[in-house]
Design brief:
Length: about 150
């Protein structure tokens, strides 16, 4: 998923999330750290959220059913995949992908999974540690080949 696509989706779901939490426009603007005018403009489709506003929305409203259903669970994984792009990062352990993940392949305890909603991939080590996240399947496969996982 491209950053712009993520921004479009988050912008279009802003009002639904606000409604889900029962917030007024003033309350939601305060929580997100934006002006009420900016919030209204976004809700009317006249202004997209910025990247940092989307990250804030995803972090603060991580438990939103609207957002979880849109992206297939925890947004932090998607935000991380978009933010880091092709950068290799040492990730902390995960829960192992019990709900939102499909196992694509496994080699010696290393698991390549795909999110059933957002369709992004992640590679987990034998202890459920996230080694890499990407929307590019070949990027993860190349990493697996280079590190001798497969």
């Amino acid at each position: 998923m491209e950053r712009n696509t993520f921004i479009q989706i988050m912008s279009s779901r802003l009002k639904l999330v606000r409604t889900e939490y029962g917030f007024s426009q003033d309350q939601m603007a305060a929580v997100l750290g934006i002006s009420k005018k900016s919030l209204v403009e976004t809700e009317k489709g006249r202004r997209p959220l910025s990247w940092t506003e989307c990250v804030t929305l995803g972090a603060v409203f991580a438990q939103s059913q609207v957002l979880q259903n849109e992206f297939g669970g925890d947004l932090s994984d998607i935000i991380t995949a978009i933010a880091f792009g092709n950068t290799h990062v040492e990730y902390p352990p995960t829960m192992g992908g019990k709900v939102w993940w499909t196992l694509i392949e496994e080699h010696n305890g290393y698991r390549l999974q795909q999110n059933i909603i957002s369709r992004h991939y992640r590679l987990l080590d034998p202890h459920d540690g996230r080694m890499m996240s990407s929307f590019d399947y070949e990027e993860i496969r190349d990493y697996m080949r280079q590190t001798g996982i497969e």
